[in-house]
Design a protein that fits this description.
The protein has about 160 residues and is an all-beta fold. It has one domain: Glucose Permease (Domain IIA). The protein is built from one helix and 13 strands; from the N terminus they run αβββββββββββββ. The strands form three sheets. The protein has a six-stranded antiparallel sheet, with no helix packed on it. The chain has a four-stranded antiparallel sheet with strand order 10-11-12-13, with no helix packed on it. It is globular. About 30% of the residues are buried.
Length: about 160
């Protein structure tokens, strides 16, 4: 798929998505999934409730999966920070598994390679990975740890 400026991006491999991702559940009962930052929106893997990526000008790409009621913004269009992308769901456009509705958020570099979230603050949580184990580790917020098997990780946003 071509991106603005002629750069090319590979279609993501679903097996890579879990290496660099966080699952968020709904805190406010609205289920709204928003863009982490401004960038160009692209869809993959399905025409119905697809996997969405937003390619940001600072060189990172964020991915959003398991959504329903997706935005009708055309592929290649600019979305602003916090723009609504959809509503949490349990859709599987690229395969995989969803135990209940949530937003699966993933991070990539400008070439499409997964970027580890370890040590980064995302959604108000600082993330700590367990090396070599997919979907493991924990988030830490204000001295409190929340592990992957504990319900529910809430996205408090970049200001949280």
């Amino acid at each position: 798929m071509a991106a603005p400026g002629g750069a090319r991006y590979p279609q993501p491999n679903p097996s890579d998505i879990v290496q660099n991702a966080v699952d968020f559940y709904d805190r406010n009962d609205d289920g709204v999934v928003r863009a982490s930052a401004g960038g160009y929106l692209y869809r993959f893997c399905s025409t119905v409730n697809p996997y969405i990526q937003v390619r940001h000008p600072h060189g990172l790409t964020t991915g959003y999966i398991h959504q329903v009621e997706l935005t009708d913004v055309p592929d290649g269009s600019w979305v602003v920070a916090y723009e609504v992308l959809g509503v949490i769901g349990a859709e599987l456009p690229c395969g995989g598994f969803a135990n209940r509705p949530h937003a699966h958020w993933a991070l990539f570099d400008h070439t499409g390679e997964p970027v580890p979230v370890d040590g980064r603050t995302v959604g108000g949580w600082t993330w700590h990975e367990e090396p070599g184990v997919n979907h493991s580790g924990y988030g830490e917020r204000r001295g409190r740890e929340r592990h992957r098997d504990e319900c529910c990780l809430t996205n408090y946003g970049v200001r949280g």
